[in-house]
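Q: What does the assembly look like in three dimensions?
Context provided by user:
Components: two
Sequences:
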Amino acid sequence: MRQHQKSYGVKTVAACLLLLVGTTAAAEYADIILNKLSEKEGMRPVIFSHWFHRIRFQCRVCHNELRFEMRVGSTDVNMDDISQGKFCGACHNGEIAWTTENCDLCHTGAPGLSTGVRGGHQTLGPGIW
Amino acid sequence: MLTCYQPAAIAGKWLPLEKDGLHDTSNPGLKLLQSPAEALANLPPDNAGNQVNWHKAMEQGLINPRSSLSGAKEPEILDLDILMEDTRGALMVLFPHKVHTQWLDCENCHEKLFKYETGATPISMGDILNGESCGVCHGAVAFPLTECNRCHKIPREQ
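A: Here is the predicted structure of the complete assembly.
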């Protein structure tokens, strides 16, 4: 327990220091990299832009109605599900948004990016996001 | 210490996607995507996050994000402020349900993150800085943790 507290304290101090240092990251705040499956399947990582989507949908649509967990990487999303209208496929079906045939519009990330929250003007936490 | 930090005003600086360090510039689809500046420049400015005051943008009708996939379901808005008094040396926190329920359903926070009963769930800045509690959103998508006084805003004298 004491060791856990010490580790927790170090993480918190690190988070505070990062918070104060600021950021030089260039991408837009709350941009999400999804790459648990993409590159393994020979595709670029997906970049999900919160700024683009929240203009059009309230948080509740994806994070309640469509069942995306509010933690990056914790919802496994694959193309089979999307093609069947789940997750991204609830909109990306040619009726609300572009279809899954437009691979290059979602799989837009540079090679090697790891799953996580990216973007500038953000809190630089310990990476749990 | 944290309450002293205020980031410099950075409004109006959105990089094009091809220069943001994330997008693959060799991707032919990149030029078809909307740029952040095109989408965000005409929305109310802010000095953090996406440099957009999303709450104002919705209140002023500049954006009209759907509340459900079909757009037919009315969201449940709760106009109830919660005063969190036990904030040690910091200003007290006033949590507005209204602005949160304008974006989120009750189930997004209750009871996965917070019990319904006021005060029943301990909240600490340590947890928040580590991406738990309020930090599930704030610091990742909702306004960042550099903006102390947006939550800690109530002096004890009042």
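Follow-up: The two ends of chain B are 23 Å apart (CA to CA).
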